[in-house]
Specification:
alpha/beta; TIM Barrel; eight-stranded parallel barrel; four-stranded mixed sheet; 14 strands; 42% helix; globular; binds beta-D-fucopyranose
């Protein structure tokens, strides 16, 4: 499928940063090689029984061995940038000891390979693979972990030169809430109070990491990536409006307020006071550290969410909404809300609703209420039930359509003055989709997990031609 001559009707800026994204545990494999030690995701995938088909990241896309081939795929795609993550357990296998040279060397080769191909590296320091040894000391519920992160951040910044833009964290919400409060991601804990304290320690780690990096290399650009959303109330009923505001607090404001305003939202502090330790772990001076200025903000966006008040299933059905199972009992209990689906709205293979207007809404809110620093869409994309056709090709027109709609939303937001400077498709490759294992495919390149063979899908060729026409 070649790019539609009528799309987009307005041009993107010539220097817009087009890219694709991946993360270490999802693609690398080589889980026990060259001094890497287990992360919480190794433990969780091997032991929890909560990953579809018992899949693990042991081999994944075998990117650790096939990275040259993947770099060539990026080069042929003509992206300007590549977002990937550095695996903490490859760098600091025993957490406090010296850095592991072989782990560093892998990322040095990767970064050099990107530079050779004229591609800007955008590494993330933490995409969920906490060293298991730190989890055993409390993980993100322990303040110590924040300091260990700052040490690790300093190591990678010092050792991996040739990177001008670093991201500290990917989606701390997901680490804290799916990992510590709802028990569906590693490390699989189900405790709301732990979710709140992990929230604070992740933010503190981010702030300490930013400060450590600025001390070492003042000119470096540092940001973080949040998964933010447009949360809508199912009706104007007070119960639904209040439920939407609480969900907005947990997903958006609890991160954005401390980062950009230096304070936690009062309603969230009150809510989590009921769940010890909650925010009682906050110490004097922490918020100044957390609100250390950053140079850019990464936004991961997949779809909007609609919520209604707890116990309003009947009203939801009467209004024509779908009422699905909650992510966990804990989530309804503390946010006093239910998630509902808007009828008729298309969904991806993740069962996530597609509505690009939520992206525009979110970007405009960020720029009006929070910050004018450059924004990047660090992840956007969709899973579909792709397959290899009898002619050997993988055709994914729905993914192309999804991307186009979201790019239009980006342009709309930019027309309103939003300082958006780049867009990264999730993902370059099909990969280990966390609790869904290999059963969900987000790649613009198909992976044959038996042979490791890569087959660019039609979305890959579409994106290549689109970039060519728009840069
Ligand atoms: C995001 C994650 C990323 C990937 C996509 C589908 O939450 O950051 O690793 O799993 O979702």
């Amino acid at each position: 499928m070649s790019p539609d001559a009528t799309f987009p009707q307005r041009p993107f800026p010539r220097d817009f940063m087009w890219g694709t994204a991946t993360a270490a545990y999802q693609i690398e494999g080589a889980a026990t090689e060259d001094g890497r030690t287990p992360s919480i995701w190794d433990t969780f995938s091997h032991e929890s029984g909560l990953v579809t088909n018992g899949d693990t990241g042991d081999v994944a896309c075998d990117h650790y061995h096939r990275y040259e081939e993947d770099l060539d795929l990026l080069a042929a795609l003509k992206v300007r940038a590549y977002r990937f993550s550095v695996a903490w357990p490859r760098i600091h296998p025993d957490v406090t000891g010296p850095a592991n040279q072989k782990g560093l060397d892998f990322y040095k080769r990767l970064i050099a390979g990107l530079h050779d191909r004229g591609i800007t590296p955008l590494p993330t320091m933490y995409h969920w693979d906490l060293p298991q040894s730190l989890e055993e000391k409390g993980g993100w519920t322990s303040r110590e972990t924040s300091y260990r992160f700052a040490d690790y951040a300093a190591t990678v910044l010092e050792q991996l030169d040739g990177v001008d833009k670093w991201t500290t964290f990917n989606e701390p919400w997901t680490s804290a809430w799916l990992g510590y409060a709802y028990g569906i991601h590693a490390p699989g804990r189900s405790d709301i109070g732990a979710g709140a304290s992990a929230t604070h320690h992740l933010l503190l780690a981010h702030g300490l990491g930013v400060q450590a990096c600025r001390d070492i290399r003042p000119g470096v650009e540092i940001g973080l990536t949040l998964n933010l959303g447009a949360i809508r109330a199912g009706s104007n009923d007070d119960a639904d409006v209040a439920a939407a505001w609480r969900n907005d607090g947990n997903l958006n404001r609890i991160w954005l307020d401390p980062l950009f305003k230096g304070e936690y939202p009062q309603d969230m502090v009150e809510l989590y006071a009921e769940y010890p330790p909650g925010f009682s772990v906050v110490q004097e001076g922490d918020l100044e550290i957390i609100s250390s200025p950053i140079d850019f903000l990464g936004v991961n966006y997949y779809g909007p969410g609609t919520v209604m008040g707890e116990g309003r299933e009947h009203e939801a059905r009467m209004a024509g909404f779908h009422v699905g199972p909650p992510p966990s009992e804990e989530s309804i209990n503390h946010l006093h809300s239910i998630g509902v689906g808007v009828p008729g709205r298309p969904r991806t293979a993740m069962d996530w609703e597609i509505d690009a207007s939520g992206l525009r809404e979110l970007l405009e809110r960020l720029s009006k209420e929070y910050t004018q620093i450059p924004l990047y869409i660090t992840e956007n994309g969709a899973a579909y039930h792709d397959y290899v056709g009898t002619d050997g090709a993988v055709r994914d027109p729905e993914r192309i359509e999804y991307i186009k709609q979201h790019l239009e939303a980006c342009l709309d937001a930019m027309d309103e003055g939003v300082n958006l400077q780049g867009y990264f498709i999730w993902s370059l490759l099909d990969n280990f989709e966390w609790g869904f294992g290999y059963s969900r495919r987000f790649g613009i390149v198909w992976i044959d997990y038996d042979t490791g063979r890569r087959i660019p899908k039609s979305s890959y060729y579409w994106y290549r031609d689109f970039i060519n026409a728009n840069s």
